[in-house]
Amino acid sequence: MRRHDAFRLGLAPALIVLAIITIGPALFLVLTSLTPLNLTLPDTAWDFSTPLGNYLDLLDDPRFSRSVWVQVKLSVATVAVQLLMGLGVALLLNGDTPVRRFARSGFLIPMVLPPIVVGIVWRVMYAVDISPFHRFMDWIGLPVGSLITNPDTALMAIVIAESWEWFPFTMLMALAALQMVPAAPVEAARIDGANDWQTFRYVIFPYIQQTMLVAGIFRLIDSIKAFPLIFVLTDGGPGDVTEVTNYYAYRQAFTFSLWGYGSAIATLMVIGIFVLSWAIDRLTRAADAEAG
Amino acid sequence: MQKRADRSARAARRTRNRLRLGDGATLVLLALVLFPFLWLVQMSFRPNTDILGYELAFTPTLAHYRALWTGAFPGSFVNSLVTSTASTALALLIGVPAAYSLSRAGFRSSRSIALWILATRMAPPIAFTIPFFLAYRFLGLSDTRTGLILIYLTFNLALVIWMMKPYFDSVPRELEEAAWIDGCGTWSAFWRVTLPLSSPGLAATAVICFILSWNDFFYALILTRTQASTAPVAIVNFIQYTGWEWGRIAAAGTLVMLPVIAFSILVRNYLVRGLAAGGVKE
Q1: In 3-state terms, what secondary structure has residue A144?
Q2: Helices B246-266, A115-126: inter-axial angle, 10-degree rounding
């Protein structure tokens, strides 16, 4: 029994600190979202006269609904590209040669770079006057204008940079799963005359689909937090074509000082992410049960 | 007989060619993927007169690095080092005993604690930033290293618990029980027996915490201004003051990523577990 008390003592500090730095702020965030808090107007703190005011305003805020739509486009596109690219590279790296062992470390670089550096790397690539990409396009006779200042291509430019940054994550997970695929069924399929695609689709893929699903979920949830790339490349523009919900909440709170409103958006984001995690948990469990 | 030998030789040759082809494709792809990153590094050594140049042959210069040395950048680099190290140390100090307790005690609430930790991992940083910013104004912690160290605990503490618990699970209990019988207390047995056995995991966890704190941009952007600003924020600051001075920005970017690249090669094999904390089924 004394030992159990010792364990309790070991756990307590972590739980207390975690409560102070997570539950405390969460409650504070929800409370703030129920006030029209604006730091330039001191009376607005703790003014709970219209608790749902911010949320009602959000319903009629076209910029908010546009930001959600931008988010959906960004998330779907980046997750899809990352899954395909990650899986493709993982298949290529799955052989065990010195070259590929070396390449496995090399491909990790984009993911571990500080996000701000990723932003600068791509800012250079997208700067018409100094970018080797633009120079190359000029040289082959297909000059392109700046991708990040053109409303039609700005979001695509973000998708490219974000996918470049995070495909190593899906690649690592796919690679780990591929290395767990047993050799016997793959050989059996080959002997039975299955071609590469058939072997992949019907023998290998069933072994790794669960991992790919989990990898996709992680990227989906993290894509909702995209910030440094947008900050450095487009600042949400041109207009608001790359302004995702996270960025909009940041603007409302830290640029316009509308803390109550920003908190309401952040609260909705938290709820959205938790609902998403819950739905996905259900989904993967169903898939688990199916797989037996 | 002869025919069969021929066929197997052909098959072996085919496999070898395939491998060689795959190796070639791998290298080409790696070069393509890393090109944007390498371009930034070479830009940091290009003299200002030739910063827009494309010729691969140029006389490299350290002028941009020297220019950084005289400005506010070294101070911000120190801030990054101090906050990342302190937050990592603090997270280990509080998180490691908690992970061990969760591993050994079989608390009835273990599952809810695990969910809570996962929720912390999933929550968007903006949800923490708004209340922390308001509270720090009130507490006088804005633009201080202490403030940053505290908010980095929001992700580091959860990560330490999540990563260390499986390591402790894999250390056989019999070893500690033997130490208990020899008269060790619970925590001295942990300190002398279990912790040394989990040291590779501990090192990997520490490195990943350090990388995550070092890479942070969002929290530091909002919670610091001048005194405590970290290296990533310092880069953005001088973009705002002096415009896009490409050479200097490239040099600063190269400096900021150096420690991270060195460290991540060390812990390559643990990265998935750290970054996917909660997703990879043990």
Answers
A1: coil
A2: 140
A28 and B119 in contact by Cβ < 8 A?
no
C-alpha span between B233 and B83 (Å, rounded): 13
Q: What is the ipTM of this complex?
A: 0.87
Q: What is the pLDDT of residues A196-237, one digit of tens each?
A: 889 999 999 998 988 898 889 889 988 998 899 999 999 887
Cross-chain residue pair B276–A116, CB shorter than 8 Å: no
Rounded to two decimals, what is the model's pTM? Answer: 0.88
C-beta neighbour count of B17 within 10 angstroms? 10
Q: Do B98 and A14 touch (CB under 8 A)?
A: yes
Q: Are B41 and B257 in contact (CB under 8 A)?
A: no
Residues of A in contact with B39 (CB under 8 A): 121, 124-125, 132
Query: Cα-atom radius of gyration of chain B, to the nearest Å?
Result: 25
Q: Is some CB atom of chain B closer than 8 A to the CB atom of A275?
A: no
Please give the structure tokens belonging to residue A41. Answer: 């107007």
Give the minimum alpha-carbon distance from B177 to chain A in angstroms, rounded to a whole number.
11
Residues of chain A in contact with residue B51, where contact means CB-CB under 8 angstroms, are 130
How high does pLDDT run on average in chain B? 85
Contact B213, B84 (CB under 8 A): yes
Q: What domains can you pick out in chain A, each with its CATH number?
A: 52-291 (1.10.3720.10)
Nearest-angstrom CA–CA distance, B58 and B281: 50
pLDDT in tens, A144-162: 888 888 899 999 999 999 9
Residue B106: φ, ψ to 5°: 60, 50
pLDDT band at B275 (very low <50, low <70, confident <90, very high): low
